[in-house]
Design goal:
Four copies of one chain form a homotetramer.
Chain A lengths: L12 E5 L14 E7 L4 H17 L5 E7 L10 H10 L6 E4 L9 H5 L7 E5 L5 E6 L4 H13 L6
Parallel strand pairs in A: 2-3, 3-4
Antiparallel strand pairs in A: 1-4, 2-5, 5-6
């Protein structure tokens, strides 16, 4: 399989939720990774993205695929803070790990969001078992097409070293 | 028509949004009033109650019926504050008047929520043209049954003085 | 109340289902009547109209309102026959009375469909307690607006003779 | 890959729709095959199965995957006949090939339905690129899980001879 896919840049996270210790993408090699970038007060994230992230988490075995929330706040920073996100995660029953994207020193767009060149929220990034970006999608993607991509990636055998 | 329905207690509001001046129920006599009690981080409010409130606002002429949001925060007060509610209203495109329920001096349940004996959010309170409580419902009510009640109340002629 | 609404023309029915004897609109005076005109192989009827008709039947007391299905077949007559309609009603669990619209001697549009000048299926016709046409709507009408109309009509007191 | 999956039995079809000539599973080797078994008057088929079959057809390239409808009539044979199915396919805009399952000489269950031991409708049968049964599911399967299976199968490389 030719290596035409870009290796995913590192996550730059200010604070983690729902995980005993920080997560690095390198530590997830061998598993498919779904990064769900959202803002807790973004209507499309709440109505479509978050429920889909929960369905993905439920549909795939943890040893094959992991869902990670990425709170990429680029507006209204004062009210979408860490304390508010904790309440949101509690109220919506989210149990997958979530990272709060590291704010930039200048400008409103946080660092991971910049590194992945995300256009807004919700965005869906999918990494294959080798940590390469296989999807970087702004907006909603229907379950059938997304499921097809994830199933294909789960089925891929990692290249021998 | 017999007066077996209780007159609605006054709203006790700390701050109003989407209205040039404070609203009193007495000033709304002659119109049907729908009070939609919610919390901005309550999933059932966001997925069902808020969209229904918007549909009600769109379906009835303003001279017949008014929708009023009531932000009855009884938990997580620190993050569901006035600033956060402004962002929420903006992001969700809410244009109906909203009042922030007045916090109690003691306890977490705000004053209007107490006065109406609400059990939680979302709750729906409907007042007839004479300001009497005709529905006080905890949870979701389907559009057909709610529409039937509202249509009936809109059709009622106020009793002559 | 001024009599600006047209009295509903008589139903012309070839065969009834779900009723021990034929139904006449005159016999229903005093109740609101919802006529749901459909074809059993019309996708919009099956996905939206039929479920809504069942919801209406469930939401209103029988002494206030009756739902009547009207099988107005204007195309593919050979396969949407009485035997097929019986199977359809059984499979979809329809328990409200249904009348098969009387075919015309010439042309494909049956007689009741002609009398009400229906444009297609699904169509919704609503009669008030005095048998007057208060709605004649082609296509889907959302539950909130339809509920509002039905609630208003149920609340109307029949004019004294 | 071990050969623990059963080779799909041949389709036994009385009449085909939407295909210039009869289809055999052997002729489809190299492609994933989705057999959607339904009855045109089965509510769950119409509300869930048929729309899903259309979504599958739209989501995958024809060279990778083919959707085939299988009209497995086991009740009410008189009204779910070939002529009615043609009308149904036309009204619902179905363009994938459909086969009418061959009636049995005795009993109401048609031959392909027997050969696959289907329990009812809707049923979903998925064959891999080598014609082996990878799923035989009675009832609805959500888009995400079904998509995952189809994506995995599309990604499989046929074993070398």
């Amino acid at each position: 399989m030719s290596a035409t896919w870009e290796l995913a840049p590192a996550l730059q996270i200010r604070q983690w939720l729902n995980t005993p210790e920080p997560i690095s993408l390198e530590g997830l090699r061998g598993r498919v990774v779904v990064l769900h970038a959202f803002q807790m007060l973004c209507p499309g994230c709440v109505s479509q993205g978050i429920p889909q992230a929960k369905r993905i988490q439920a549909a795939f075995p943890a040893e094959d695929l992991i869902v990670i929330g990425l709170h990429t706040v680029f507006e209204h920073h004062a009210v979408m803070n860490a304390e508010a996100l904790h309440v949101f995660a509690h109220e919506y029953g989210l149990s997958f790990p979530m990272g709060i994207d590291q704010p930039a020193e200048r400008g409103s767009v946080p660092l991971t969001m910049q590194a992945y060149a995300l256009r807004g929220t919700p965005s869906l990034i999918v990494l294959d078992r080798e940590g390469r970006i296989r999807l970087n999608h702004f907006g909603h993607l229907d379950d059938l097409r997304l499921g097809a991509l994830l199933g294909r990636l789960v089925g891929e055998q990692p290249a021998p070293d």
